[in-house]
Amino acid sequence: MSVDTKSSHDPPPSKQQQQHKIPIKDRPKPSSRDKARLIAFFAIFFSSCVFGLLFQLLVALPFRLVPLQQSHKIYRQLVATSKAFFGAVLVAITNSHSGFGKTQLVLTADDSINLNNILEWDDNGQVVGIKLAKQSIWIANHQAYCDWIFLWILFVLGKIDTGLIIILKASLKWVPILGPAMQFYRFIFIDKTRTLQKSSLNDTAKQALRDDSPFALLLFPEGTLVSRLTRPKSQAFAQAQGVPDPRNLLLPRSAGLLYCLRSLIPQFKSSSSSLALYDITIGYPGVNPQGYAQDYYTLQTIYGRGVAPPQVHLHLRQVDLSTVPGIQTPPTSSSSSSSITSGPGEEGGGRVTTESTTTEADLSKFQEWTRKRWEDKDMLLDEFYDKGKFPEGNQGSVTVKIPLKLLLGGRGAEGWWKVPVGVVGAAKLVGKLWALVRR
Q1: Starting at the edge strand that comes first in sequence, how are the strands of the sheet with 398-401 ordered?
Q2: Which of 13, 181, 197, 265 is the most buried (most CB within 10 A)?
Q3: What end-to-end distance do the CA atoms of the chain give, in Å?
Q4: Checking DSSP bridges between strand 188-190 and strand 164-169, what pairing results, if any?
């Protein structure tokens, strides 16, 4: 199945759009029009971020402060609404009709995923949705700072974006405007002192189960971008550990992912839901073999200068959790706290302590399994840089225009369109809450 959704009405790419094949440092200087676009983009993007944060503070937060269960549920629904609104902003600035970053998604998959079964089409043959597991963990390689945008849009297509949780460096927690907003989203910030064990990860998962709401945990096990600064560190670490060094990636860290799997799988097994593990590999066109995507694509150049990747390639795999070693070991009284040396991308480096029931054997097996996944990714990227696409197998590939229909509703109670009337809706909810209090 190879589906190309390109329309005869699509204009050919401009010379500026074709600059994506040229490293940023070698591109022509920005024109006056480029500077105007950059100003317009930041004005729209940050005003949307400010609006979302104000919605969280002024509309959602008051319900969190009322010590009633129903009020807290309303708070979570309103935060989910603000998250859906932000996803809509990303769709608006990235779709093929945008004046900023015009990008399409090219999906491929191995035999673990049948694209024909998970894709939803409209009457015009355009992909308008993807059937993804409601509760899931996602692992991805980290090529550029814009990775999260295209993954977020994928989650919008899958209607799981309101449950998106990203594990980030603690230094991002207090970035102006964005940091507080991400805290409302319950994103997880970690460093040497703020570990996953001390985070809200388990509480967030339990709450998603109670509310029967989406839960999509996104991890970048490399811990940082592939770049000319981080590749030498990865190479030195691989040599010190006596393991193969990836050509296109960084060695992944294992402890954080292992902790997430061992903590979350039992929670979802005890419910009617089941946890899925997705492995996604990201590739950007125009990047030279063993090059660095961040040298070609930044938020400023994609949306400010209009030099977006014409496609972002996403290769999907779903992992059978029963085949993952080291995550099924039951707790025993003889187990003790264990740690492993983190990968070169680990924030702070050093050693990462996992839960007390993890043995050194568990850690070793899981670390080897994670490295094998990254070796597979490395080979996928070798083929991508050689042929300009990931292997299509028997399914072919599907090119997905980011559809404007995603902005028009169909998202139930968490539709982004409820944000502009959030104050009115909140007033109605206050009335209902007051009626409950008076009973």
Answers
A1: 188-190, 164-169, 215-219, 135-140, 276-283, 311-319, 104-109, 398-401
A2: 181
A3: 59
A4: parallel
